[in-house]
């Protein structure tokens, strides 16, 4: 956060020797002084030097000794920490005032006195609004761009990394972002209804059809013909979550994946989510179908520091967290994921 003696006199580290002028950054020196709101006179007074001498340091005409640079660092660090502490205390005071201003509710035995239905932190819940999706800007753009070109995408990442939410986010925004008429269906392969090929086809038809589907004598051939007719006036996209499960079930063989590949090349796009790469989660015989060649892979990793900060600051502000609490959440998350 603050520059150190090492930054002021990198060639001499913390030894008390005179620093060459080129080792001092006058602009950084001035910036650190302005950050704490001090005048040149006050800094000079605290150091016990003439204000003209200090002014020459900021102009780059003269350089302080390493010992003086160290004293400057300690001075700025101490004042900056005190300013930050005062800001924290003020935020907490305002938060307490807001909490006291909230209307009190009578407590009834056996009933919760706090409403949790509108929790800001959605854990193991569905994504209902696109604006609740944070981060993943590059992944979002890649996904939308690929499908706009009628391509297929495979989202890969460990459990609880956000694959399902990315699929759901896509299904919520695709109609508006892709333009024209779009049919987006979502199928969770982990559900028992998808244990068989026929069951999977029924679920896919229900997901894609805008009207209740009444024809139940269906198979993979019927599905292909239906999608072919559907794509004549719209873009058709089928999202398959937990794709790993399909390859683990009997009946989902090479012919099944070859049929999907043919539909993906001609009539529709697929967006799949799985913990492993598509090529790694199927049998050897299925790999030879070349089903996986039509996919572009997007690999999800934990949030970057910037993405995590955006999430914590937005949610924290809405939840009334102080800056200290927000910083604690960031550090806690960083410790958990080791980044």
Q: Identify the CATH architecture of the largest domain.
A: 3-Layer(aba) Sandwich
Average pLDDT metric: 78
CATH topology of the largest domain: Rossmann fold
Assess the beta-strand content as a share of residues.
5-15%
Give a description of the structure.
The chain has 339 residues and is α/β, with parallel strands linked by helices. The chain has three domains: 5-84, 434 Repressor (Amino-terminal Domain), CATH 1.10.260.40; 130-299, 3-Layer(aba) Sandwich (Rossmann fold), CATH 3.40.50.300; 305-337. 50% of the residues lie in helices and 9% in strands. The protein is built from 14 helices and five strands. The protein has helices spanning 5-8, 26-35, 40-47, 51-59, 66-101, 137-148, 163-178, 197-208, 220-230, 244-247, 254-266, 284-287, 305-319, 323-337; strands at 152-156, 182-188, 235-241, 269-274, 295-299. The chain has a five-stranded parallel beta sheet with strand order 2-3-4-1-5, sandwiched between helices. The longest helix has 36 residues, at 66-101.
Write the layout of secondary structure elements.
Blueprint: H1 5-8, H2 26-35, H3 40-47, H4 51-59, H5 66-101, H6 137-148, E1 152-156, H7 163-178, E2 182-188, H8 197-208, H9 220-230, E3 235-241, H10 244-247, H11 254-266, E4 269-274, H12 284-287, E5 295-299, H13 305-319, H14 323-337
Parallel strand pairs: 1-4, 1-5, 2-3, 3-4
